[in-house]
Amino acid sequence: MYGTDLAQIYDLVHRERGKDYQAEAETVAAVARAHRPGAARLLDVACGTGAHLRYFTSLFDRAEGLELSEPMARTARAALPGVTVHPGDMRQFRLDATFDVVTCMFGSIGYMASEAELGLALEAFAAHLEPGGVAVVDPWWFEETFMDGYVSADVVTVDGVTVSRVSHSARRGTASHMDVHVVVAEAAAGARHFVDTHVISLFRREQYEEAFRRAGFTVEYLPESPSGRGLFVAVRT
User: Fold this and answer.
1) Given a cut of 50, is residue 8 above it in pLDDT?
2) Residue 202: Cβ within 10 Å count
3) Same domain, 15 and 54
4) What are the start-end ranges of the E strands in the chain?
5) What's the rounded Cα separation, in Å, for the pair 209 and 201?
6) Are residues 129 and 25 in the same domain?
7) Number of other CB atoms surrounding residue 222 within 10 Å
8) Which residues form the domain of 167?
9) Is residue 10 over pLDDT 80?
10) Sign of torsion, CA 107 112 113 119?
């Protein structure tokens, strides 16, 4: 999951597909400050290559990231010199700091393989928030909204590098299995192909909400968001 091959072309593909990281970051900042005015410190959990974190750094006085994949974290550190990107697993990280806002974007919370793991992650979020702090989570598709058999395809060319990305997602039990086929072609290096497989849990909305409450949050779900999946906004009690 999220190895060196994918880290190298991840942002290139998603930006050219039209993903607006800036708009998503600004939405999250506004939602968070509606619940915690003056929020100044943010931790972006599963920050990937830092695409959202880049904008969070201009929206908050202090913004840091946490990332499990070393190739993704390395890419983020190179792109954002001076910004701290911690190595860590969202289920069990411990930082010597607390924040006003903890975010988890791009459906990354769906990589929790069970309700127990989901609970561990949200408990870790709560442990790194000040009382009254806000967790903003962009969920993966719910069990009831997932489109079984969904196919996505894109071809982009940037700075002499052409990337084709074709993905197929299928429901298997309570998870979605997404196979992503990528071909990267350059004039000098030729073409190479790799496949990245993602197993992402299809939790129901009620399962998320109960997990937030058990972790010590009051929670609401906002169905409208730039990602199309909505946002969970949870305040640590």
Assistant:
1) yes
2) 20
3) yes
4) 41-45, 62-67, 85-87, 99-104, 129-137, 150-158, 161-172, 175-186, 190-201, 217-222, 231-236
5) 15
6) yes
7) 12
8) 150-201
9) no
10) negative
Write out pLDDT tens, residues 83-137: 999 999 999 999 999 999 999 999 999 999 999 999 999 999 999 999 999 999 9
| Cα–Cα distance for residue pair 222/15, rounded to 1 Å | 24
Same domain for 163 and 218, yes or no, is: no
d(CA 215, CA 226) in angstroms, rounded, equals: 26
- Shared domain for 113 and 224, answered yes or no, is yes
Angle at 154 between CA 153 and CA 156, to 5 degrees: 165
Tokens of 224: 């409208």
Looking up residue 173, the CATH number of its domain turns out to be 2.20.130.10
Q: What is the pLDDT of residues 171-197, one digit of tens each?
A: 999 999 999 999 999 999 999 998 989
Helices (H), 37-114: 51-59, 70-79
Per-residue CA distances from 116 to 14, 193, 214, 221 (Å)? 31, 36, 11, 21
Residues 177 and 216 in one domain: no
What is the phi/psi pair of residue 227, to 5°? -75, -20
Structure tokens at 190: 């030729």
9's CB contacts (< 8 A; 6+ apart) are 161, 163, 182, 184
Token pair, residue 96, equals 């010597």
